[in-house]
């Protein structure tokens, strides 16, 4: 199996974390090395989610550094589940995948199931995420 970096692009509440964790479980059963990372993990302390907007940059660095460490350990399947609403947000991961010889796959996870965001993201933020995401989708 080729080493692959998957970027799950989404609006909060779309279910990307749930999907990523289900894939992690399947990989574990199939004995495929796989890791899931997100900026949200930075805010999860002792089973509680404590978001702090002033630490968002640190959270994204935490996620990126975890992905790079996994690549150094040659984990074959890495999933990053952040909103990734712009090309600017994706670019560091594109470069990282290239530096370590990983195939990059970008997936858009849609909220067609009516899921609710578990982090109480305000509606105006969800609308902004959706607008930015749809404005920045590059289909080739």
Q: Mind explaining what this structure looks like?
A:
With 140 residues, this protein is of the alpha/beta class. It has a single domain, classed as P-loop containing nucleotide triphosphate hydrolases (Rossmann fold). The chain contains 5 helices and 6 strands. It has helices spanning 16-29, 40-43, 56-72, 87-100, 123-135, and strands at residues 4-10, 34-37, 44-45, 48-49, 77-81, 103-109. Helix 3 (56-72) packs parallel to helix 4. The longest helix is centred in the middle third of the chain and has 17 residues, at 56-72. The two termini are 24 Å apart. The mean pLDDT is 87.
Short description:
The chain is of the alpha/beta class. 44% of the residues lie in helices and 19% in strands.
């Amino acid at each position: 199996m080729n080493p692959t970096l998957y970027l799950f692009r989404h609006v909060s509440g779309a279910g990307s974390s749930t999907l990523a964790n289900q894939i992690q479980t399947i990989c574990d059963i199939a004995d495929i090395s796989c890791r899931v990372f997100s900026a949200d993990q930075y805010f999860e302390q002792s089973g509680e989610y404590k978001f702090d907007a002033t630490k968002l940059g640190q959270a994204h660095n935490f996620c990126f550094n975890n992905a790079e460490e996994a690549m150094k350990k040659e984990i074959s399947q890495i999933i990053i589940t952040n909103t990734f609403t712009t090309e600017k947000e994706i670019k560091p991961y594109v470069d990282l995948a290239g530096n370590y010889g990983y195939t990059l796959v970008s997936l858009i996870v849609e909220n067609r199931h009516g899921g609710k965001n578990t982090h109480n993201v305000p509606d105006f933020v969800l609308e902004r995420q959706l607008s930015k995401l749809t404005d920045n989708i590059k289909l080739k």
